[in-house]
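Researcher: Sequence recovery benchmark, item below. Answer with residues only.
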């Protein structure tokens, strides 16, 4: 589908402070912004227009999850979904996964943190091919990754969501998937599965993700690459990750960025079907 270079944002929220902040941020990036007066009107906007980003708050008046996701799937399934969320880190992540959103911003908004995350959303949108309305469709002349991925996390919901996502067309590649809920299980499953890329949480019961990576590297035929996910991001931790040749993702992860990173790693290791 052809589309203009102008970008478009839909706000399905009713928090005045969040609205003012998001409008200011996206107007500075030359987005056209739609702010329907009600949830019912938001559904009509989703069904009639193409959006690059849809920002929503499921605590808004009259918000209905089923109606919202149905409207998104009709015309805007490739849009970047972003959620305003309340609760603990775990609760917010689970809510984000339940919607298939690429990121969330915790309430109350930390404007500095929010701006950094939104900059990444803008960068992802800019990576779109000029003639395609999708973040994931293969660009002309590029290779298609084909690799074995292993996701390791003691959060069962997170593993199940990532497994489902990377088995589907939105993953941008052809992947075999294995999941494990702790380091010992991952090492045991790897004997038969032989993963190419391992994506692991750091903090897990029994064995930390970084210790598991070292155990993997001691194997005769270790995985080709590792991605670690942590709730605590610091300069020192990034330095350690760099020295250990690990790619670090800070929670909450941005699904679009994870998709791109895995794809790039697979191609770099010549794990393709071309």
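Model:
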């Amino acid at each position: 589908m052809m589309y203009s270079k102008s970008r478009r944002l839909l706000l399905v929220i009713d928090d005045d402070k969040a609205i003012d902040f998001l409008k200011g941020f996206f107007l500075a990036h030359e987005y056209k912004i739609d702010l329907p007066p009600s949830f019912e009107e938001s559904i009509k906007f989703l069904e009639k227009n193409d959006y690059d980003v849809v920002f929503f708050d499921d605590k808004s008046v009259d918000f209905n999850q089923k109606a919202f996701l149905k409207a998104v799937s009709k015309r805007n399934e490739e849009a970047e979904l972003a959620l305003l969320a309340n609760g603990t880190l775990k609760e917010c992540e689970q809510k984000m996964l339940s919607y298939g959103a690429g990121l969330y911003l915790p309430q109350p908004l930390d404007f500095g943190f929010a701006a950094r995350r939104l900059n990444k959303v803008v960068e992802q949108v800019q990576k779109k091919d000029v003639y395609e309305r999708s973040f994931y469709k293969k660009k002309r002349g590029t290779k298609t990754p084909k690799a074995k991925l292993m996701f390791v996390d003691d959060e069962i919901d997170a593993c199940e969501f990532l497994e489902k996502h990377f088995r589907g067309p939105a993953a941008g590649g052809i992947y075999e998937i294995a999941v494990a809920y702790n380091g010992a299980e991952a090492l045991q499953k790897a004997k038969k599965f032989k993963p190419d890329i391992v994506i692991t949480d750091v903090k897990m019961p029994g064995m930390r993700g970084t210790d598991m990576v070292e155990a993997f590297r001691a194997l005769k035929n270790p995985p080709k690459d590792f991605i670690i996910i942590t709730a605590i991001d610091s300069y020192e931790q990034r330095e350690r990750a760099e020295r250990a040749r690990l790619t670090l993702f800070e929670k909450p992860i941005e699904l679009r960025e994870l998709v791109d990173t895995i794809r790039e790693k697979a191609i770099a290791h010549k794990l393709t079907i071309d």
